[in-house]
Amino acid sequence: MVNFRIISKIIGSLLLIEALFMSLCALVAFSYHEDDLMAFLISLLITFGSGFTFMYMGRNADNSLSRRDAYLLVTAAWLVFSVFGMFPFLTHGCITNITDAFFESTSGFTTTGASIIDDVEILPHGILFWRSLTQWIGGLGIVFFTIAILPSLVGGSVKVFAAEATGPIKAKMHPRLTTTAKWIWSIYLILTLACVLSYCAAGMNWFEALNYAMTTTATGGFAIHNESTEYFHSPTIDYISITFQFLSGINFTLLYLSIVKMRLKALLTNSEFKLYVSVVIGATLWIMYLLLTRMGYDLEHAFRAALFQVVSFITTTGMFNEDAGTWPHITWVILGVVMYLGACAGSTSGGFKCIRGVMLLKVVRNNFRQILHPNAVLPVKINGMSIPQSKLVALFAFFTLTMLMTLVTATIMIVAGIDNTNAITIALSCVSNVGPTLGTQIGPVMSWSILPEYIKWILCPLMLMGRLEIMTVLVLFTRTFWKEN
């Protein structure tokens, strides 16, 4: 049976961590002498109190998690974080209803980046910092963060890692998972700090640099200006943003091997990385050509605009330096494809993941070979490693579910009166945790506030399932999960 005591104990500890993050925002609010200080004090008191309550309910729990416990813990932790994450918005009053507050919080923690706030520039600094911080926390995983800083708290850490990590192949850089988690979070911190310093050097102030760095390296996309990075009208800032979005879309294990271990060859010969780079180059050149021939852009502008949007969409960041909604419709198709594909597994990005793209391409290639050589044994190999049949079955199950969920959600939105292009790209955006959408009603630079409330409630679990790669959440709704044995 499910060990609710240990789950309650861990969730209580996670809530205490969330309250500590809220206290950082309270310090920001205090330093700027704005009206959101009380909102954060109330929110962190509620979160602290709830955390201690959950820990009390889980007292005397043994520190051991089964696989069933791990899957329930991960889903519950993300849901609870999103629920408590909406309190600063509600108590401050910048968002006045639960639907919108929960949507904004869920979008933040899942690093989707879709916002219902029409004018973010009127928000106080503490609230803006909280929006960025939710994305930074969710970038590598809420429970994975706990494994790094409090390894003794999560006894079944390997099972939790399997439930929360993205991609079909869970790579570890060290036999001890806690060491792996610490190294990955160290790389994440280094990337964030380097991004902060780069933005500052390019002309941002410290607050702007910190916020944009957190949402860039988390590939989240929340901005503190309505025009995102377009606000600065700076090619330098655009190229810095492109660089750190791209780096954050690479598998962090590969980054560790290439940067810390100085094994650059491991990165350059990796099949997933090669597909990632190839798609970025191909999509950029295609869109660049269209901007040059149909929109009259000059060469550098076309290159920068195309590269920024392609990297933003494939890494599922969702920042923008141009309104892609005004571009030729064929560019929407290209961006929609890279939006669904996503970057590398083991990164902060969402989407289908390039590793699955490599697996699909090799399965198709083997199928053609099998036609010519019916008796041949053709294993699927990636980077010299044979992929077991169970992983291939899971691959097609994942592909089928993402397509099915996108079609069902898009159909519901079309019935609700949303235009076809918006409906499809909104569904893709949520299941891939991208943020922007393409269409006539809601463009890539607009908020999602005009969506009906019940549509927002449909999109919230879709974002959560997209972040946890569907199976982790849906397995909870199977009969087998709740059977005693």
TrEMBL record:
<feature type="binding site">
    <location>
        <position position="317"/>
    </location>
    <ligand>
        <name>K(+)</name>
    </ligand>
</feature>
<feature type="transmembrane region" description="Helical">
    <location>
        <begin position="38"/>
        <end position="58"/>
    </location>
</feature>
<keyword id="KW-0997">Cell inner membrane</keyword>
<dbReference type="Pfam" id="PF02386">
    <property type="entry name" value="TrkH"/>
</dbReference>
<keyword id="KW-0812">Transmembrane</keyword>
<keyword id="KW-1133">Transmembrane helix</keyword>
<comment type="similarity">
    <text>Belongs to the TrkH potassium transport family.</text>
</comment>
<keyword id="KW-0813">Transport</keyword>
<feature type="binding site">
    <location>
        <position position="112"/>
    </location>
    <ligand>
        <name>K(+)</name>
    </ligand>
</feature>
<feature type="transmembrane region" description="Helical">
    <location>
        <begin position="329"/>
        <end position="352"/>
    </location>
</feature>
<feature type="transmembrane region" description="Helical">
    <location>
        <begin position="12"/>
        <end position="32"/>
    </location>
</feature>
<feature type="transmembrane region" description="Helical">
    <location>
        <begin position="273"/>
        <end position="292"/>
    </location>
</feature>
<keyword id="KW-0630">Potassium</keyword>
<feature type="binding site">
    <location>
        <position position="111"/>
    </location>
    <ligand>
        <name>K(+)</name>
    </ligand>
</feature>
<feature type="transmembrane region" description="Helical">
    <location>
        <begin position="454"/>
        <end position="477"/>
    </location>
</feature>
<feature type="transmembrane region" description="Helical">
    <location>
        <begin position="136"/>
        <end position="162"/>
    </location>
</feature>
<keyword id="KW-0472">Membrane</keyword>
<dbReference type="GO" id="GO:0005886">
    <property type="term" value="C:plasma membrane"/>
</dbReference>
<feature type="binding site">
    <location>
        <position position="434"/>
    </location>
    <ligand>
        <name>K(+)</name>
    </ligand>
</feature>
<feature type="transmembrane region" description="Helical">
    <location>
        <begin position="183"/>
        <end position="207"/>
    </location>
</feature>
<feature type="transmembrane region" description="Helical">
    <location>
        <begin position="392"/>
        <end position="418"/>
    </location>
</feature>
<feature type="binding site">
    <location>
        <position position="433"/>
    </location>
    <ligand>
        <name>K(+)</name>
    </ligand>
</feature>
<dbReference type="GO" id="GO:0046872">
    <property type="term" value="F:metal ion binding"/>
</dbReference>
<dbReference type="GO" id="GO:0015379">
    <property type="term" value="F:potassium:chloride symporter activity"/>
</dbReference>
<keyword id="KW-0406">Ion transport</keyword>
<dbReference type="InterPro" id="IPR003445">
    <property type="entry name" value="Cat_transpt"/>
</dbReference>
<feature type="transmembrane region" description="Helical">
    <location>
        <begin position="70"/>
        <end position="90"/>
    </location>
</feature>
<feature type="binding site">
    <location>
        <position position="316"/>
    </location>
    <ligand>
        <name>K(+)</name>
    </ligand>
</feature>
<keyword id="KW-0479">Metal-binding</keyword>
<keyword id="KW-0633">Potassium transport</keyword>
<keyword id="KW-1003">Cell membrane</keyword>
<feature type="binding site">
    <location>
        <position position="220"/>
    </location>
    <ligand>
        <name>K(+)</name>
    </ligand>
</feature>
<dbReference type="InterPro" id="IPR004772">
    <property type="entry name" value="TrkH"/>
</dbReference>
<protein>
    <submittedName>
        <fullName>Potassium transporter</fullName>
    </submittedName>
</protein>
<feature type="transmembrane region" description="Helical">
    <location>
        <begin position="239"/>
        <end position="261"/>
    </location>
</feature>
